What we know:
The protein starts with about 30 loop residues before the first strand and ends with a helix. The protein folds into two domains: about 35-180, no CATH class; about 200-395, no CATH class. Helix 1 packs across helix 6, helix 2 (about 240-250) packs parallel to helix 4 and helix 2 packs parallel to helix 6. Strands 4-5-12-2-3-6 form a six-stranded antiparallel β-sheet, with no helix packed on it. Helix content is about 20%, strand content about 20%. It is built from six helices and 15 strands. This is DUF3747 domain-containing protein. Keywords: Signal.
Amino acid sequence: MKFALPLRLVGLATVAVTSLAPLNAARAASIFDTQEVTQSSFIAVASPFNRGYTLIVMEQLPGKRTCWAEGGTNPVVIDNLWDTFDFSGHCKRNRDSNGYSIRIGDEDYGLQYLLNIVERNGDLLLVGTPRVGVQGSEILIGRTQGISPGTLKFVLEPGWRFTKRVYQGKVLGHVYFTQGNVGTPPPDNGGGGGTPTPSGFRDIGNDIYKTQIEEAVKLGFIAGFPENNTFRPLNPLTREQLVSMAFEALRRIPGVNVPAPTAPAASPFPDVPASRWSAAKIKWARDNDIVKGYLDGTFKPTQNVTRAELIAVMKKAAQYGKTLRGLSPNLAAKQNPVTFSDMSGHWADNLVSEMSAYCGVSSPLNERGTRFNPNTASQRNYAATATLRMLNCVKSEQQ
């Protein structure tokens, strides 16, 4: 899909390691289940050991003595408070593969992948590497976003989170680095995760974009999953979902009329049948120059949208929204642009910078540091937030 700029088919495979690599070897269904946890109660760190680093996963027990303190940015340096007292009953510490492993969707990858720390390009990466005899690619799970003396915090890549292993209904101490399906909600521990929010979603209580998600859902341009009261904030957004969200957001501009598109008489793209649920909105977006197809003529409706592509659509949608209001499509800066540290030479460099000045539509990954991560798949929480910021900025424009 082309957006504001000529599209390059950028995706997770363009980085040194992939965020999700399918295995070729046969895998048996996991005998374990998962339980969601309060993310802020867990931390993964690179702890100096001999001449390298070892991975430690810590859990802060609720209502107990603080187990660690954080300082600095890029990287975040951890003060190991657990070394200053007997942490039994206050903290749980996992130091090897008996205590942590990788889980993707419904499958436990502990027997196929090992967790390792590697140093590359001035950064420490937490990666899953295939065990001997297993065919598969390296999986990127987190990074320290820099190197400094001391114990360093891993910032998990978008889509990854901590969960706990469950066996026959019993929650174990084993911690998963998890990507994919939502597990059993965490227990109510007196203010921890799992408490229903005003929107009814049990999985956004600790999400950095919680407030924006609730406002976006209230406005109605994005929805959750009523079958289990989840929003699934870390799930990636697809191309057709982005088109639908942009269309529904523009319909929330006061005083403008965006008619509901009718079912197209023919397929708007070869891979988008006229009968597909998103076909009418995709045709609308194509006809109004908000999106275009790939050079081969396809649209790839179910392919994940990168963060850069999301912003490209947000710019087109903002311009279209201003036009509907009878205003110039020019997007004047509302604040100082962000200087992102990883955008130089990227096709969306100027675009992302421009939209950071337009009410902060573009912002650093997880609102921390200076990295935008343009080629990373856009998660639902940030997609909802960026769309909300775009919509509110368009609504605030004056004649």
